[in-house]
Every structure is written in structure tokens, then in C-alpha cells.
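=== RUN LOG ===
request id: a7f3
mode: sequence -> structure
chains: 1
length: 215
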Amino acid sequence: MVLAILAPFFVRFSIEQENINPDYTSQLDSLAKVIEQEKEALAQEKKPKTYYKKYISKKKKDTTTYQKKKYTKQVKKEQRIETFELNTATAKDLKQVKGIGEKLSERIIKYRDKLGGFYQQEQLYEVYYLDSAVVQKTLKYCTLDTSLVHKTILLNKKLEKQDFKILLKHPYLNYEDVKAIFNYSRKKGQITNREMLKEAIGEEKAEKVWRYVLF
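=== RESULT ===
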């Protein structure tokens, strides 16, 4: 800094002495270099310092590779359903069909026994709470032997008071039907054929129940 302040005086002194001593020229050049160096040093001191923010390097992602496990979708083989006869089917036979459990299988058997057996496969649709889709599936695996249907409506005798309740238990006969049978029997005697049954309870109902009637 001192040299920078005194530089003009040295220059002036050097010029005044130039005529006296020719070696002053080289000295002047050396002095000029020193002054330039001092200027540069001074400029560096005045130059504001640059601060650099330190950034914490982000943690590198874990490059560990994991081998993907191969999962093979196991398709359950559909259980083979053995064909069964509907009028002799057990709960085990019926439960082979998806959608029929313990309760439904018991309900089907109970309804079948009350009827006296199935004479048409479509009678399965009459079972309470049995879905139609399940019925359709069941019909694919069952056969039907109508010779196994037995008579549960006994009209081959004189009807007594206790017979009223027995007839009323049949799923196809309601109170009015049983009453009509009793009234007809008192007036015209024992019902011995389908035609007489039609006269007693009507053609539509008679066609539905005659297979279960013992004349």
C-alpha cells in the first residue's frame, strides 16, 4: 500500500533525473513492475470473498437388486362331481354342488320326503331359499328315477278326523284343498280316480298332486 501511495513521486523524480543518469530508465521499469504488482495485490485484498455453500450430498439410492420371486397362480382343479340320483341322494351327494351346504342339503331332503319324492327335476326350484343358479348346476349332475316316487296322500279309505292333519302336511295341499276333499268324500264317497280328484280340488291342483295319491 505504501508503494502505491508514493508511486507518483518516484515517477516524477525518475523523469527529472532521466537527463542526469541513463540507468534511471531501467530502474523506472523495475519500479513500474513493482507498482503493478502492488496494485494487483491491493485489488485482491479489496475484492470481496466468495463463499460457497456446502451441500450435503444426498445419500445414494440403494442399488441392491432383489430377485423377484416367481409366483405361479395355482388354479384349483374343480372337484369332480359324481352323478347322483335325485330321489335317493344323500346330504353328501348334494353338497358336492357348489352353493349347497349342510342346511340346504337337509332342506332339499326334507322337502323331497314330504312330497313323496320328485317326479320332475324342476321341482328343485320349489325348495325354499335354493337359488335358481344352484338348481341349474345341480341338474347337470343328477338323474331322476320317477319309479321311486311313493304315495303320501292316502285316499283309498274312509277319511277320518285325524287324516285332515296328515293330508295338510303335504306341500301341495292347503287348508282349502283338504277341506274340499273331505266335503267331496262325505257327499260322493271315496275318491277312487283322477277324475273324481279333479272334481274335488280342481283340474290344475289335481294334475299336480295325483302322482302322490293312493286311490
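=== NOTES ===
The beta strands are 84-85, 142-143, 153-154, 213-214.
The radius of gyration is 58 Å.
=== END ===
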